[in-house]
Amino acid sequence: YTTLFRSKSLFCEKTRNSPDFDRKVQDFMDGIGGCISSGDVNGYHYDVASRRKLIYKNNPNIKYMHFGDIDAGGLWIHHNLCEIKGIKFKLFCMSEKELADPVYKTCLHKLSENDVVRMQELKAIREYKNVVDFMIKNNAKLEQEIVSLRLMGTL
């Protein structure tokens, strides 16, 4: 499930299947811009790829950012968007800074064996090296919803 947010200078994509979370993020982004969503709605999949590429093509001066879980899956989604889909998204609140923040200490999850395996290839990609090294060294990952709570001033 994907939601795309656009403002004058920011285009942020987050992935999560939660209408309640979408409402909270939209409240947080209120007054900033529009929103494009895709996902399974009553069994029907709305494809956002063509809209995403059209927005990117027609708005070259906007900063594009991806907001996802700080784990192997979130980083692989970012990699897919940038390298396979051809849209150069920056990471938004998906760094070792968030993982090291004492506010999130009780919310961190331990890595699974599968997480560690999936991170090995990510370690070789310069953009992900620091966050992946931190995750492996500290056996930690973090859900984007936790970071969102702080961004919205509720954590």
What does this molecule look like?
- The chain has helices spanning 19-28, 49-58, 72-84, 96-100, 113-123, 126-138, 144-151, and strands at residues 2-6, 10-15, 35-41, 44-46, 63-67, 90-91.
- It has seven helices and six strands, in the order ββαββαβαβαααα.
- α3 (72-84) packs parallel to α5 (113-123) and α5 packs antiparallel against α6.
- β3 and β4 form a beta hairpin.
Q: Report the helical percentage.
A: 40-55%
Low-pLDDT parts are 1-10, 28-46
**Spatial sequence of strands, sheet with the most strands:** 4-3-1-2-5-6
Oligomer: single chain
Number of helices: 7
The gyration radius over C-alpha positions equals 16 Å
What is the structural class? Answer: alpha/beta
Distance between the termini: 24 Å
What is the 3D form?
globular
Number of distinct beta strands: 6
Order of helices and strands: EEHEEHEHEHHHH
Biggest β-sheet strands, sense, barrel: 6 strands, mixed
Q: Which key terms come to mind for this protein?
A:
single chain; alpha/beta; 6-stranded mixed beta sheet; 155 residues; globular
Could you write a compact summary of the structure shown?
By secondary structure, the protein is α/β, with parallel strands linked by helices. The protein has seven helices and six strands; from the N terminus they run ββαββαβαβαααα.
Q: How is the secondary structure organized here?
A:
Blueprint: E1 2-6, E2 10-15, H1 19-28, E3 35-41, E4 44-46, H2 49-58, E5 63-67, H3 72-84, E6 90-91, H4 96-100, H5 113-123, H6 126-138, H7 144-151
Parallel strand pairs: 2-5, 5-6
Antiparallel strand pairs: 1-2, 1-3, 3-4
Helix pairs in contact: 3-5, 5-6
